[in-house]
Design a protein that fits this description.
This protein is α/β, with parallel strands linked by helices. About 30% of the residues lie in helices and about 15% in strands. Helix 5 links the parallel strand 7 and strand 8 (about 150-155). The termini are far apart.
């Protein structure tokens, strides 16, 4: 009788267990399509990026206000600028906006081959930015899937800084003249 009762309870309990269905999103690209959930692997029709399991996205998005708070709380946080060297230095033929002092500049296109250069920062907080937040989400995803434990993407990118009036922006952000 006990065996029958245990069997019946097991059957009832298992009927309440819902098999978790995998959710897919495009590899982070900074566009609205990053937030569209898909039920199977594939390729994004908007940006052309491959779908990945949503659960593999471990980085956070920060506003500039939150970035300033993070820099104040953790002055040793690593700033990673993933724009081209010309954009970083202010010499590109496109608007370059500015850059953070002491930021490391590695173009997102080169990051997979140069990730070992910054491997010593895997256990530190890494704050990733670009100009419009289209490249930095991809870089943030790459870092977080390659052993970096505390990665944040600066949402919007430096193009959204209209008035660098926050104390951290006044002291740490170098505005370019173009």
């Amino acid at each position: 009788m006990k065996t029958l009762l245990v069997l019946a309870l097991t059957v009832i309990a298992s009927s309440f267990i819902v098999k978790q269905k995998k959710e897919y999103v495009c590899t982070p690209c900074g566009l609205e399509c990053d937030h569209i959930i898909h039920d199977k692997p594939g390729t994004c029709n908007t940006c052309g990026m491959t779908f990945i399991e949503k659960s593999t996205i471990k980085f956070k998005d920060l506003s500039f206000e939150e970035l300033c708070a993070r820099l104040k709380a953790n002055p040793k946080a690593v700033l990673l600028d993933v724009r081209t060297p010309g954009e970083f230095k202010g010499s590109a033929d496109v608007p370059t906006f500015g850059h953070f002092e002491n930021a490391i500049n590695i173009n997102v296109e080169e990051l997979p081959g140069r990730i070992d250069e910054i491997a010593k920062y895997k256990s530190q907080e890494v704050l990733v930015y670009c100009s419009h937040s289209h490249r930095s989400p991809r870089a943030s995803y790459l870092l977080s899937t390659n052993g970096f434990k505390n990665v944040s993407n600066v949402a919007g990118g430096v193009s959204t800084i209209t008035q660098p009036d926050k104390d951290c922006l006044k002291t740490a952000f170098v505005t370019h003249g173009n």
